[in-house]
Design brief:
Order of helices and strands: EHHHHHHHHHHEH
Strand content: under 5%
Number of strands: 2
Structural class: mainly alpha
Shape: globular
Strand order of the largest sheet: 1-2
Radius of gyration: 20 Å
């Protein structure tokens, strides 16, 4: 049995790529098929988080040499908690967009000289705020899927602590992973069936390492205390 001691984790940027590539080669067929299934499930937006979470479960099973199948993408055990997460995220984006409506009347009446500057400042602030919260929530989906954390508040709280001091590293990792995902375009699009599943695996490796850094085996700790 394990519990968590939330703390800022060491984000091992380069190590994640090495381990990710090795894991992907371990069962490439399952990962590619799971990605295709995840894409099908994500056609309905409210299932997008569920699809990603189930992909992470498959990646963990492959990582630990356990039996798994790409069809596990269609497991709906965590649907309710991901529906809540989707709703909170959707509501959060709406709240961040509220100031945008202040600009609408001005567009009808003719833009003032100050309008372009004000609108630009708002858009920059909106993008920064959105990315800040997304980066702080980096480990949430992994905590929900891999560690069965059912409380959105708890998952956010743990992820918030884990990402302290790591936001720039996580952002850089996300950018590089995104570039890798786009490499498939060079191969006339067919390569996307390799590059995009690979990005999911790379992200899993980063999630897994972060989680392992904050996990404590309660039985092991009891044994240490007894000694």
């Amino acid at each position: 049995m394990s519990t968590f001691i939330p703390k800022p984790v060491e984000f091992k940027f380069g190590e994640y790529f090495n381990k990710g590539f090795e894991l992907f080669k371990k069962d490439m067929g399952t990962f590619i098929l799971a990605f295709i299934f995840a894409g099908i499930l994500s056609i309905i937006p409210i299932f997008a988080f569920l699809a990603i979470g189930n992909f992470l479960k498959i990646a963990r099973k492959v990582n630990y040499g356990q039996q798994t199948s790409a069809s596990e993408i269609f497991n709906f055990d965590d649907f309710v908690v991901y529906l809540k997460l989707f709703g909170i995220l959707f509501l959060g984006v709406l709240i961040l967009e509220i100031p945008l409506f202040l600009f609408i009347p001005k567009t009808d009446q003719g833009a003032t000289p100050e309008f372009p500057v004000a609108f630009f400042i708002f858009m920059v602030a909106f993008i920064i705020a959105l990315y800040y919260f997304l980066l702080k929530a980096y480990y949430m989906v992994a905590l929900i899927s891999l560690e069965n954390v059912k409380s959105i508040k708890e998952a956010w709280s743990i992820s918030n602590v884990m990402t302290k001091g790591n936001l720039l590293s996580i952002l850089g990792f996300a950018i590089v992973v995104g570039l890798i995902g786009q490499l498939g375009i060079i191969a006339c699009g067919i390569g996307l069936l390799i590059s995009l599943p690979l990005t999911y695996v790379l992200q899993y490796v980063s999630y897994e390492d972060g989680i392992q850094q904050i996990k404590v085996d309660e039985l092991e700790e009891i044994g240490k205390i007894s000694e």
